[in-house]
Design brief:
The structure holds 2 protein chains of 2 kinds. By secondary structure, chain A is α/β, with parallel strands linked by helices. Chain A folds into 2 domains: about 200 residues, Aldehyde Dehydrogenase, Chain A, domain 1, CATH 3.40.605.10; about 170 residues, Aldehyde Dehydrogenase, Chain A, domain 2 (3-Layer(aba) Sandwich). Helix content of chain A is about 35%, strand content about 20%. In chain A, helix 1 runs antiparallel to helix 2 and helix 9 packs across helix 10. Among the domains of chain B are: about 50 residues, no CATH class; about 150 residues, Rossmann fold (3-Layer(aba) Sandwich), CATH 3.40.50. By secondary structure, chain B is of the alpha/beta class. The termini of chain B are far apart. In chain B, the strands form 2 sheets. In chain B, strands 1, 4, 5, 6, 7, 8, 9, 10, 11, 12, 13, 14 and 15 form a 13-stranded mixed β-sheet that branches. Chain B is globular and about 65 Å long. In chain B, helix 8 packs across helix 10. The chains are: A alpha/beta, B alpha/beta. Chains A and B meet through helix 11 and strand 10 of A and helix 3, strand 1 and strand 14 of B. The structure holds zinc ion. The site of zinc ion has 8 residues of chain B, from loops.
């Protein structure tokens, strides 16, 4: 079945072919086999291309690294022996300011053999623009990659339910990123009868750190830095709350001093603007108001603000502005650890991950995953507890 | 608390640096004490960052981020004593600032505004032309910043004539009638900067109409952002406005809903002047330190007026530059400065949701 709709007036960012015919060309009969060799080869080539042209942007390097052949093969292996076919047309709806997540969901959908339509909002981040630019360049660099034009369609438009509705009609699956409001408003727009919606609502993340020696301090600092640097602590997976597990005050102090110095050292390459400095001030003032329990806010320097709290609420988390404001809480034991319902990642250092994993498995706490500190931003095809490959394929019985 | 009978007697623009400093350090500290004791939210903010704040006499106040009034309702008076809640216009963002005022604060704001405006208009009420449409003040329940501004300044005029129709088209009949009656008298014209430019000056230019008043004063306020986008400077604004309104005096003024009353009016030299009851500081928001004269930074406004809400020290979202103190060529004492525009918006990144 071929869908013909007149959406050619929209701002199609990929592919950039002049006829503007691509949306009319979508044909779910041209689906590829999940994990096909052609996909494995092309995606790993794309990964190498991204690394080569990353201009040292750590997020693009990470994306390129994720696309290495061995990682893709490892993922494919997890579904080996299962008869799977691609779901069909996947409509990804991402806010323009998402980090590189949208690109991961795009490549995962492709790796599973699907055709993707990606919608970006009118306001895109610098990195989203760069990734789209690189994708165009990559496909143009070799005839062997031209086929990607049939499998990836990227469109940018200002919030418009009419357009979303028309694109949804094509979709066998929708991948929706955004706030609960966004998700429910998009879910209300009908897709195909048997379509699935894969939703990624707003989440926040935390870290649990236990330090016993000075030697551990530097390792933990580097871990937290790599978990927060990429998106100025604004990614959902970046820890916002630091839980200190039985860690001596002087080690905590050393930790913050070192992080503070390291952040200051990168302040030239990652400058903040006046709005952001004011946002940080606003945030500690808000936490002061929002917490029923005592709060101690300390502006360490222009980059780092510490806010020691005795409780965390949804309001305190929702008001968080990123940009290296850490809520700081003391724990006497792991048993005391409690997180809010929408917690995504618990990053840990010096703590037995198995203990945390079993707490998550036994639903004592509601986080979606436990990782080592420093690994919070590493993407997995199982995201927020949802197996994207499984959702975007059909398993034959 | 401050003795307002005495404070109101102070000349608007004559206090020198040393006297003003002395006045402000004691009065602002008293206000910090007052709000700490009267507003739980304010107390929590101070306790969070500086629990020993009140161990040092005359500590400069901890300035609140202006947006805090958009997220939280901060009041230093009992609920039943709140007489009015003013809100910022909030045309672009969904959230508006909410400012709690009791009768005393409302009266004080009006008295201070009167003192300041009379410095520029003179003692007598003047025939008044308002560059807006009359409906902007009709809905009294939802006082917009525009409505509040017009209401507040209407007291200085009579024969209030609205120059625009509700669809923002120009009401030529009304203006012509006003002009034929008052063209030789001193008139008071008021409007928001962008409205004056877009719907009045430009519109009259397009119609090739002009109303050359013999004498008069145009006071205008509001952001320059939209004018900057059209590359309209204050000089161009003045020059072209004079082409349609004659050789009148034109004064911009700066103010905000969070500190209504203490407006900063532009003098003949083009400098905004602090009245005696309020003051500004230019802040480097990276470290919250005050910047010296001549350096660009974020404007912090300090005012002696607010007792019903903790708004005596506020970090605005405006960029400004301190030009000097006590030595403006116009002869007025106190700090004088200019506003350079709004702060740059925060970067777009992370997974926060902006589905636009
Ligand atoms: Zn002057």
């Amino acid at each position: 079945m071929t869908h013909k709709i007149n959406l050619t007036e929209l701002n199609w960012r990929f592919p950039l072919i002049s006829e503007k015919q691509h949306i009319a060309d979508i044909d779910s009969e041209t689906l590829l086999a999940p994990f096909a060799q052609q996909l494995l080869d092309t995606l790993s080539e794309l990964g190498r291309y991204l690394i080569r042209n990353s201009e040292k942007d750590a997020n693009i390097v990470a994306l390129g690294f994720w696309l290495r052949k061995s990682n893709l093969a490892r993922i494919a292996k997890q579904y080996a022996g299962q008869e799977r076919t691609a779901k069909g047309i996947v409509f990804h709806i991402a806010p323009g300011n998402v980090d590189t997540l949208f690109f991961y969901s795009l490549v995962v959908a492709l790796f599973a053999g699907n055709i993707s339509i990606l919608r970006l909002s009118s306001q895109t981040s610098v990195i989203a623009d760069k990734l789209i630019y690189l994708l165009n360049q990559f496909v143009g660099s070799n005839n062997a990659f031209y086929f990607l034009q049939d499998y990836i369609k990227i469109v940018q438009y200002q919030k418009n339910d009419q357009v979303t509705q028309q694109l949804s009609k094509l979709a066998d699956a929708r991948v929706i990123w955004g706030s609960n409001n966004t998700i429910s408003s998009i879910s209300a727009i009908p897709a195909k009868a048997d379509a699935v919606d894969v939703c990624f609502p707003d989440r926040y993340s935390v870290a649990v750190i236990q330090l016993e020696t000075t030697q551990q301090v530097i390792e933990a600092v580097n871990g937290l830095l790599s978990d927060t640097k990429a998106f100025y602590q604004q990614a959902c997976s970046s820890p916002k709350v630091i839980y200190w597990l039985n860690t001596a005050q002087n080690l905590q102090q050393q930790f913050w001093e070192m992080l503070s110095a390291k952040l200051l050292a990168i302040s030239d390459e990652m400058p903040l603007n006046e709005s952001e400095y004011i946002a940080k001030t606003l945030y500690w003032q808000q936490v002061g108001i929002l917490s029923e329990r005592p709060v101690a806010a300390e502006v360490k320097n222009q980059m780092l603000t510490l806010i020691a709290v005795e409780e965390i609420s949804r309001e305190i988390v929702d008001a968080h502005c990123g940009i290296w404001c850490f809520l700081d809480m003391q724990l006497m034991s792991i048993a005391q650890l409690d997180v809010l319902e929408h917690c995504q990642t618990i990053a840990c250092f010096g703590v037995d991950e198995n203990v945390l994993n079993s707490k998550v498995a036994n639903t004592e706490i509601t986080a979606k995953r436990v990782v080592s500190l420093g690994q919070s931003l590493v993407f997995s095809h199982i995201w927020d507890g949802i197996d994207l490959i499984d959702m975007l394929t059909i398993r034959e019985k | 608390m401050a003795n307002w009978t005495e404070l109101l007697e102070l000349p608007v623009y004559q206090l020198n640096k040393a006297d003003k400093k002395a006045l402000f350090s004691t009065e602002l500290f008293k206000l910090s004490q007052h709000h700490y004791q009267s507003c739980l939210a304010y107390r929590r903010i101070i306790d969070a960052v500086e629990p020993r704040f009140f161990f040092k006499e005359n500590q400069p106040p901890i300035a609140l981020a202006a947006n805090i009034f958009k997220h939280h309702f901060l009041s230093s008076v009992e609920q039943q004593n709140i007489a009015k809640i003013t809100t910022s216009s909030g045309t672009t963002s969904a959230q508006v600032s909410k400012i709690a005022l009791d009768k005393e604060n409302i009266a004080r704001q009006q008295r201070v505004l009167t003192k300041i405006i009379k410095q520029w208009l003179g003692k007598k009420r003047l025939p008044m032309l308002i560059i807006d449409h009359p409906n902007v003040i009709k809905d009294k329940r939802s006082y917009s910043a525009r409505g509040v501004g017009i209401q507040g300044l209407s007291l200085f005029g009579y024969h209030h004539t609205y120059a625009l129709n509700e669809d923002m088209s120009i009401n030529e009949d009304a203006i012509t009638e006003f002009f034929s009656r008052y063209q030789n008298e001193k008139v008071f014209i008021f409007g928001f900067t962008f409205m004056v430019w877009q719907y009045f000056v430009k519109a009259l230019q397009n119609l090739a109409r002009s109303y050359p008043f013999k004498q008069g004063i145009l006071l205008h306020s509001g952001g320059w952002k939209k004018l900057q986008q059209q590359a309209v400077s204050n000089d161009i604004f003045k020059q072209q406005t004079k082409q349609v309104l004659g050789n009148i005096h034109i004064h911009n003024f700066y103010g905000m809903v969070e500190q209504t009353g203490t407006v900063y009016v532009e003098c003949e030299q083009g400098h905004l002047h602090c009245p005696v009851w309020s003051d500004i500081q230019i802040i480097n928001v990276a470290n919250m330190q005050e910047l010296p004269k001549g350096e660009r930074g974020v404007i912090q406004v300090n005012s002696l007026l607010p007792t019903s809400y903790p708004g005596h020290a506020i970090i605005t979202e405006d960029i400004g530059i301190l030009l000097g103190e006590d030595d403006c060529q116009c002869g007025r004492k106190g700090k004088y400065f200019s506003v350079l525009g709004r702060i740059e918006q925060a970067q777009v990144r992370g997974c926060s949701d902006t589905q636009n």
